[in-house]
Amino acid sequence: MQRQLSSIALALTALTSLATLAVSISPALSQPVATNSQPDKVTFLCREIFDKASGEKIPATVAWVPERKGHIRIIGWKSQVFPPAFSPQKRCEVVTQRFQQFYDNGGLNYLTHGINNGYPVICSIPNQGETCSAANQLFTIRPGSNPQLIFEQLKGILGGDTNIFLYQSSGQQVYVDMKEFFNKAPLENIPS
């Protein structure tokens, strides 16, 4: 009898430990969910959207903007150029998480383009004039692509048909003001 009680106690302890581990791991791996308890926080999500060009659903990084009570599209992920382990869905998940981290840490004031380790990239910077690095890189653009041209296309996606979000310094560096974008980008009908 004593042995059975010890076995049951041990099993319950193991089960409790596993449940605690699962609960502590889950939030780190899951996508953030916009709720009414986050009224002042932009929340980034990876969602499927309809791509008019291909006629198919594709993964997309979108943002819930609580002040506007709606979603805005950031970028759709279609490229198959990267290794199979980094599928469009995986890129969406990874980059969406980066957007959220930069936003939460106050580093998502502007998007810009640059080169990091020889690859063209889009990055998030807190202030104009800063450059892209591994620390602020959001995502890599297809090798061989012109980052400024790709950024101009991304800017078009971000700003709809307007250049209101585009800033250019005295050089060729182009910036998207994300605060202005969150306030003025077209709202999308994206299921939660």
From TrEMBL:
Signal peptide: 1-22
InterPro entries: COP23
Record key words, sorted: Signal
Name of this protein: Secreted protein
Organism from which the protein derives: Plectonema cf. radiosum LEGE 06105
